[in-house]
Amino acid sequence: MTLSEQIIWGSVYLGICFLIEIALLTWCMQIIRVMSIKLEKSKRFVTIASPLCIALIFIVMIHTFQVWLWAIVWVFGDVLADWNSALYFSLVTFTTLGYGDIVLGEGLRIFGAFASVTGLLAFGLSTAFLVAVMSRVLQEESIL
């Protein structure tokens, strides 16, 4: 892949991951809102813990989905031969651990770096989302 192709395709997959994350976090907010109304008269523990649990479930699901998306790219792009290697590389790259035991060829290094950027930005967005959910829940419960 040429440098410009790596940048273009890396940006495309990064964009797809963020569209997925935004859509699923928006869905999560709607579920939390509806659930909060239904649980208004529940015990305090339930009204605090439920939105946080739902948010965490969605965040884990979103990140897992994105790791799988990058693994699909590695397998169907004939970059990595098997699913085990592709998932491992995808997860290690997405979390920016980068062990270095699986390394992409020179023609894919920039493209592979986009998986790391995706992970960095996804973790940042998810952290901000979780903080916002926690702040709102705690404020509504008059804890803050």
UniProtKB/TrEMBL annotation:
Q: Which Pfam families match?
A: Ion_trans_2
Protein's UniProt keywords contain Metal-binding:
no
Matching Gene3D superfamilies, A to Z? 1.10.287.70
According to the record, the segments passing through the membrane are 6-27, 48-73, 85-104, 111-134
* Signal peptide as annotated in the record: none
Provide the alphabetized UniProt keywords. Membrane, Transmembrane, Transmembrane helix
Q: Which InterPro entries match?
A: K_chnl_dom
Q: Which residues form the Potassium channel domain?
A: 64-135
Check the record and name the SUPFAM superfamilies matching this protein.
Voltage-gated potassium channels (SSF81324)
What this protein is called in its record is Ion channel
- Species of provenance: Ruegeria faecimaris
* Lineage of the organism: Bacteria, Pseudomonadati, Pseudomonadota, Alphaproteobacteria, Rhodobacterales
